[in-house]
Amino acid sequence: MNGAQVGFFILAGLLIVSSLWVVFQRNVVHSAMALVAALFLVAILFLTLNAPMVGVLQILVYAGAIMVLFLFVIMFLNPIGLEQRRRLWWGFGALAGLLLAGALVPVLTNGDAPRDPVVATELFGGPEELARSLFTDFVLPFEIASILLLVAIVGAVVLAKREP
Amino acid sequence: MQAYLDQLIQGGAFAGMPREVVYAIGMLLAAFIVLSAFVAPLAGVTSWLERRVWARMQSRVGPNRVGPQGILQWLADGIKNLLKEDIIPTAADKKLFSLAPYIVFMGFLCAFVVIPFGGHLIVADLNIGILYILAVTSLVVVGILMAGWASNNKWSLLGGMRSAAQIISYEIPAGVSVLMIVFLAGTLSMQGIIKGQGWAPWDWYLFHNPFTFAGFFLYFTAALAEGNRTPFDIPEAESELVAGYVTEYSGMRFLFFFFAEWGNLYVIGAVATTLFLGGWQVPPLAIFENSPMLLAVAQFVTFFLKAYLWVFVAMWIRATLPRVRVDQLMSLCWKYMVPLSFICLLGTVAFMFVPADGQRITSAAMFGLGVAITIIFFLRVGFQIRQAKPELYFKPHI
Cβ of B142 under 8 Å from any chain A Cβ? Predict the structure, then answer.
């Protein structure tokens, strides 16, 4: 086991612990903070995988912006006390978890190597490579996603606007 | 940094040690040196200088007892805060309350990784440098919100929420102004952006075209707002919110927030210098050619002075402008700065199609305009000082 693997297992362990915290914390703000930590650790995983651009975007967009909006809304509504345990939701949650685990079994038990492994070069995951693939091969999905976001923003503005 | 460590490893300095361990120790050592030898004195001296400058501008004296002209005041303040009782309110959320100052501190300190103090004096020249700075400084908001909520105090919570709203809003004009320079330079790396400019002011991106000239002021204003500086310091407005999100903090934790604020001022100046003011570029003089050491020193001094000038400008602004209201702050950002920054972005893009000759003429004209503005500014300030004739201006060493 080399240094990179040790680093990966430490990061993965921390990531699992913080993700479990998101689910099991009874205090909503603590859950949100654990989610920030989890997203941050995912960003570090991207960095170790030679994809600094994706890692930094992960911090900028998720940990820095979206989670702040989450926290903002949580604090604005200020839920009193701790979240109640509800049996019904536990049932649904357990069912969904089992389904996901079942879906993952074939992937985890697959011992074969991927068919076309791509060797990560020095430039892989850099801004130039990312931009090139976004604006050549994936330009249509990219534009569709941006229009989707624009529609969502316009919708939010329309909903939030008070009638005179 | 990594290249230097590789050289040492090749030279057999760390025989028998795994490469990763050497890297880890080297990086920790670099972080420790940067923190204790540069960032801490810098933030401390800035805190002292700021108080002296305000005092001068308001015809007061300011701290002048500890050391010559009071320059060691920050050490005295640090010791005092270390010795103070560390109070955590009973009703506070203890874990988040104690964690928050460190997250704010980490967010600002991480920015120093990619600040280019010289041609080779940089911890890591990432190929995503400027994006990295935007990302790590956006983590500061999480710490501030955490502090505001965990204090369990309505003033703290209001301060934290105001701060979050403000930082998220002003990230847009700041980010778009940065994007302008990224378009011109064609790279996100801090060293790459500096290498795209020259030592002479008319080669700087500041004077490249009228839109980058406006973009610089947009960036600086937005950065001041992101750093919670007056006139945008509504998160800690003492006349409304006691002290905002730091109300319940005391001792060393209190100090960490202000440490981050003063250090962040320097980061703002350094980023502005890198993007718009040519960074560490020095004139190609003959004496630099055969002594790389002298060149490194000259580059560091150039960069440091340019960056510190903007810290000084932030001090003037704080001493002279009143605080804006919350609604004014938001309308300034969304109604004026965001559209203006988009206009500047489009203008810069259009300007990139202008042939090189036209660009050079525009740069020269913009440089002339900049010089004219500076001269008018100093004439005006000089006139004001001569007219006011306060006793203190003529005795600066009280």
Answer: yes
